[in-house]
Task: structure prediction
Amino acid sequence: MSRDLLEKITTSIVDGEPDLTVDITGQALAAGVEPMAIIDEGLLPGMQIVGQKFSDGEFFLPNLIVAAMGMKRAMARLEPELRSRHQTVKTAGTIVIGTVQGDIHEIGKTLVATMLSANGFDVHDLGVDVPAEQFVAKIRETGATIVGLSALLTTTMTMQRSIIEVLQAAGLRDRVKVMVGGAPISRQWADEIGADGYAEDAVGAVHLAARLMGP
Ligand code: HCB
Result:
């Protein structure tokens, strides 16, 4: 019975049916399935399948967005249950993300942030037009070990380099990995500025973040 419900949750994520995901999540709770089992054995496997299908070219951006929406809404349903059991979701890692100063493009950055949190990361999204100092302050406050820098303009991509320099000057470079992305960004650029990784899209960013977290 509970295995059946968990499989239905996975399928509803893959099929992009957020209402159904929330509904079956409620049914699973009512049937006594532990919230952590719903996350680990229902929701996350669904996100993994969606990520794989996106990488294989079988799914596209709208599939990712709807799947992440289902995951987020189910998580909102589960959070009070987790709190009442004094449980916390084991995070895959803590990440600070934002679009660099001078740049107001937010769609890709927000999608990356959503996919990361849907895949178990604790994500602190600073929004757009974010000065280097704000990244530094948030990394210190949260203890984040990864920072994601988004830049969509050839005029602002140089801010990624500046932020790496500011992290260095702040003594944080050794403890925080830098991943960069955005339309004009390439692996070559990432190497040139000394970033730890480059991701072409949101699924790539999830894989990269997992890799940067290490074993
Ligand atoms: Co904008 N804009 N824009 N724009 N804009 C671009 C980026 C141009 C390429 C369009 C063009 O000329 N062909 C161009 C930049 C040219 C250049 O620098 N070489 C451009 C320009 C020039 C401008 C303005 C300067 C225009 C003006 O005012 N004269 C101005 C900039 C203002 C500013 O930032 N200071 C501007 C404004 C706008 C808006 C406001 C109209 C709007 C943004 C709305 C918003 O975000 N709320 C906008 C948009 C939508 C675009 C295009 C059309 C789409 C960008 C987008 O959302 N793509 C874009 C054209 C294009 O990119 N093809 C155009 C979809 C997302 C999903 O992709 O690449 O952002 P993404 O993110 C991916 C990927 O890069 C990666 O994962 C994401 C998800 O798959 N990724 C990361 C992103 N960040 C990551 C971080 C990581 O750590 C890891 C991975």
User: Anything to note?
Assistant: The chain is about 60% helix and 10% strand.
